[in-house]
Design the sequence.
């Protein structure tokens, strides 16, 4: 996992970035302390048409239907500078209250896509629930699918493509997680006993070869 | 003759009762009962076929199955009937020769039909020779080539001609009348062929069937593709079942994918950077220019570094 500000790798349980000292407190100062109440689909930049919003919402619901622990959110807005998009997304996923997200889900289960049409940048962040399963490359692959559409200003189409690929990746990751969580098969657990068996045979041979103790010897 | 066999097997069959054996005439004529009531025309004496047409009728073995030197049939009728006779010849072992003679004409007394038949039809394929009188079909005469004359009883020969005349008499139009006459003859020749080959020895009563010539034509077309159809039918069932199985499997897989819910295992994760729900950043991509493709953005770097 990388720091949202300096993009340096950070280790587990780091309270702040060891390289630049960034933490959520810095983001709070930059973007506000009060938690924003927003909907999963918040088009502050106004780049989605009504029909686009319907298809986008349907795609987001589809992900939740397939993966009931997860919800997807999309935020579009002008953030001024491309450098702001990383810490903003980090802050938004941590601080936002999603009004229409399923009540049983915390933001840990969220996947947030942020599009800044002004600085022409987009990011995808995910919560702690998917932390063991997804990595930066997976997310980058999803965003790459959207890139040609976003170049043309077709934000909804790009987002749908990204979600489609995200679903494929999540399905693969789910299969891998299920495989990993299954108990190992007996033949995978125990080593081949050939060597032990050989030792046993050799021991037995030695026992037979040795003559039994005579009466003289015992006396 | 396979198409006829097929149709005769599937059509309703009507048998004519066997009549008592009659004296063996040189040629077979329909019974007098079939003749229309006498009129001024019928009692008028017949005139012999004009001399100039005699060689065309009786001078040589005909080189066509339809002999009409007087052009008594219209050109289209002649063409259609000849096509049918050609088709019959291609499908049957017994040829059918039809001599068309005017309704008021008769074969000159000097012509010995038996002699002519012996001379021209002793060699080659067996043949049925019919002298056909348009609009006076009941006067038609039927003869058989020597090779089959002894095999087919006279009663049978008589029945063949009777049924053809009966079918033709139902039509008033000359063209349809001729067509019906020839079609019925062709059908009866098929049964004659069966009788000769001994296949129908157990059923002496040949079925009396009326076939639509249009059906015969379509059956002839169908016969050409019979083998192809047979192969197709043989492959169709396994192919259809395989396709059906594949479709069902695809449907089940699609249904399973649509309805399956995936639940990830929940692992305890330590919080980072003070974030209660998420930490760090997944990935960022810029789409300001097509000159900066995603591949060049794979390494996540700060915006400052990218600019530098």
Sequence:
């Amino acid at each position: 996992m990388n720091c949202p500000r300096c993009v340096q790798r950070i280790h587990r349980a780091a309270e702040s970035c060891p390289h630049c000292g960034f933490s959520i407190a810095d983001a709070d100062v930059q973007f506000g302390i009060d938690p924003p109440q927003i909907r999963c689909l918040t088009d502050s930049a106004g780049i989605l048409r009504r029909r686009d919003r319907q298809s986008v919402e349907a795609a987001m619901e589809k992900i939740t239907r397939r993966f009931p622990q997860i919800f997807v959110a999309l935020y579009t807005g002008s953030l001024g500078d491309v450098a702001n998009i990383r810490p903003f997304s980090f802050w938004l996923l941590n601080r936002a209250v999603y009004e229409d997200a399923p009540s049983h889900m915390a933001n840990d289960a969220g996947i947030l896509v942020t599009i800044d049409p002004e600085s022409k940048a987009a990011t995808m962040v995910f919560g702690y629930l998917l932390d063991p399963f997804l990595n930066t490359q997976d997310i980058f692959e999803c965003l790459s699918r959207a890139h040609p559409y976003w170049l043309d200003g077709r934000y909804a189409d790009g987002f749908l493509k990204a979600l489609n690929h995200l679903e494929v990746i999540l399905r693969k990751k789910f299969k891998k997680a299920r495989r990993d969580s299954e108990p190992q098969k007996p033949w995978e657990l125990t080593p081949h006993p050939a060597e032990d068996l050989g030792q046993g045979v050799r021991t037995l041979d030695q026992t037979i070869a040795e003559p039994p103790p005579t009466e003289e010897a015992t006396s | 003759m396979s198409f006829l066999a097929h149709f005769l097997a599937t059509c309703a069959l009507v048998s004519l009762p066997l009549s008592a054996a009659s004296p063996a005439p040189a040629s077979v004529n329909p019974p007098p009962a079939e003749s229309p009531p006498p009129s001024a025309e019928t009692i008028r004496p017949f005139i012999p076929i004009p001399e100039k047409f005699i060689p065309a009728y009786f001078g040589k073995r005909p080189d066509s199955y339809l002999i009409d030197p007087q052009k008594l049939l219209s050109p289209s009728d002649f063409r259609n009937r000849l096509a049918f006779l050609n088709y019959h010849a291609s499908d049957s072992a017994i040829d059918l020769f039809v001599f068309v003679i005017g309704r008021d004409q008769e074969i000159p007394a000097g012509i010995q039909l038996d002699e002519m038949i012996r001379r021209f039809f002793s060699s080659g394929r067996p043949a049925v020779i019919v002298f056909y009188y348009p609009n006076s079909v009941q006067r038609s005469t039927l003869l058989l080539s020597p090779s089959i004359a002894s095999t087919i009883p006279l009663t049978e020969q008589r029945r063949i001609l009777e049924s053809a005349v009966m079918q033709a008499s139902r039509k008033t139009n000359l063209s349809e009348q001729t067509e019906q006459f020839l079609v019925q003859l062709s059908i009866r020749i098929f049964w004659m062929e069966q009788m000769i080959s001994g296949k129908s020895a157990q059923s002496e009563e040949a079925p009396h069937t009326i076939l639509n010539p249009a059906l015969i034509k379509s059956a002839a077309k169908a016969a050409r593709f019979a083998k192809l159809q047979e192969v197709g039918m043989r492959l169709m069932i396994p192919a259809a079942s395989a396709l059906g199985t594949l479709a069902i499997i695809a449907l089940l897989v699609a249904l399973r994918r649509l309805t399956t819910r995936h639940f990830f295992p929940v692992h305890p994760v330590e919080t980072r950077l003070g974030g209660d729900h998420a930490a760090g950043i997944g990935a960022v991509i810029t789409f300001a220019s097509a000159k900066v493709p995603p591949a060049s953005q794979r390494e996540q770097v700060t915006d400052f570094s990218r600019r530098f």
About this structure: Chain B has ten helices and nine strands.
